[in-house]
Amino acid sequence: MGAKGALIVFEGGDGCGKTTQVQLLAERLTKHHQILLMREPGGTDVSEAIRAILLNPKLSIKPEAELLLFAASRAQLVRERIIPALEAGLFVICDRFVESTMVYQGIARYIDLQAVEAVNKLALGALVPTVTFLLNVPCQISRQRIVLRNGADLGLDRMEREDFSFDGTIQNGYLELAKKYPDRMVVVDGTPDPKVVSDTIWGHLKAKGLV
Ligand code: TYD
What we know:
Layout: E1 6-11, H1 18-29, E2 35-39, H2 45-54, H3 63-87, E3 91-95, H4 98-108, H5 113-124, E4 131-136, H6 139-150, H7 169-180, E5 185-189, H8 194-207
Parallel strand pairs: 1-3, 1-4, 2-3, 4-5
Helix pairs in contact: 1-8, 2-3, 3-5, 4-5, 4-7
Bound molecules: thymidine-5'-diphosphate (TYD).
């Protein structure tokens, strides 16, 4: 990793406010650093093509195939965009990363977590995120936010249509992971006003000496 670069990851269930927080942090960071914004799956031509498959509600994808598609998208993104950006000293902000795979494919789809870890490791190589923020929002509130955003049942992608998306599996899965890996994950309450959440995140980055 480059001397000044950092990889800041946002994780959480659908409707936890990640995308808003990514935008708010980007606005703030860009005054101090050159940044690169990424969202997963996606971010390269190959990864966006894989994203279209993964989120297509018309496709029925087997869990193991799904795991490998997410990993393929990530392997490309890491090598094509993230590592070169870090080597150039950029701050990379990523909307979802390896913990998404641990929770959605490992915990929610019941794929062996060690297998998921091994696949993630292959996709990442030596890359390690500098910090991962978990935006913790009760699933009832996430669901309400999605309904407000998309309308009653309209516009849900293939993953959001799964029962586990809003029944607590994802939120609890993330909290379990955060307990298991306290060094790499910071849990942030995602329920207050977005500006308050953003200040909390900035405070953590300051405490870590990153900003
Ligand atoms: P997206 O529209 O980017 O959702 P969000 O705004 O919630 O991030 O869709 C990504 C979906 O893919 C989301 O439901 C989570 C899921 N996902 C996985 O299941 N595994 C993964 O490794 C990643 C990165 C995402």
